[in-house]
């Protein structure tokens, strides 16, 4: 990938080469033909992962970073 998305989303997303039509088609085929187990569990697992990010959590981390310098 050419972005920071893999670093943030880890295994919670499907990636493809944005300049490759074949890569996009392959990713879509995989998503559409995945096992029922994957298509039902992955969205919930991904939502749970997304909940680990919050503006409040980010604010606390930034505060902790800057507080020693104040």
Structure description:
Helices cover 64% and strands 0% of the residues. The chain is built from 4 helices and no strands. It has helices spanning 5-9, 21-33, 36-50, 55-66. The radius of gyration is 17 Å and the shape is elongated. The model has no long low-confidence stretch (mean pLDDT 84).
Concise overview:
With 70 residues, the chain is an all-alpha fold. It has helices at 5-9, 21-33, 36-50, 55-66.
Write the SSE topology.
Elements: H1 5-9, H2 21-33, H3 36-50, H4 55-66
Query: Mean pLDDT across all residues, rounded?
Result: 84
Name the poorly predicted regions: none
Q: Quickly give the structural class.
A: mainly alpha
Overall shape: it is elongated
Give the fraction of residues assigned to helices.
55-70%
Quantity of strands, as a count: 0
Largest sheet: none
Q: Beta-strand level of the residues, as a percent range?
A: under 5%
- Helices and strands, in order, run as HHHH
- Between the first and last Cα atoms, what is the distance in angstroms? 39 Å
Number of helices: 4
How large, in whole angstroms, is the Cα Rg?
Answer: 17 Å
List keywords for this structure.
elongated, 0% strand, mainly alpha, 70 residues
């Amino acid at each position: 990938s050419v972005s920071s998305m893999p670093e943030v989303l880890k295994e919670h997303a499907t990636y493809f080469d944005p300049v490759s039509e074949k890569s996009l088609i392959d990713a879509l085929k995989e998503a559409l033909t995945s096992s029922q187990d994957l298509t039902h569990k992955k969205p919930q697992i991904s939502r749970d992962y997304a909940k680990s990010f919050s503006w409040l959590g980010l604010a606390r981390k930034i505060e902790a970073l800057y507080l020693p310098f104040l």
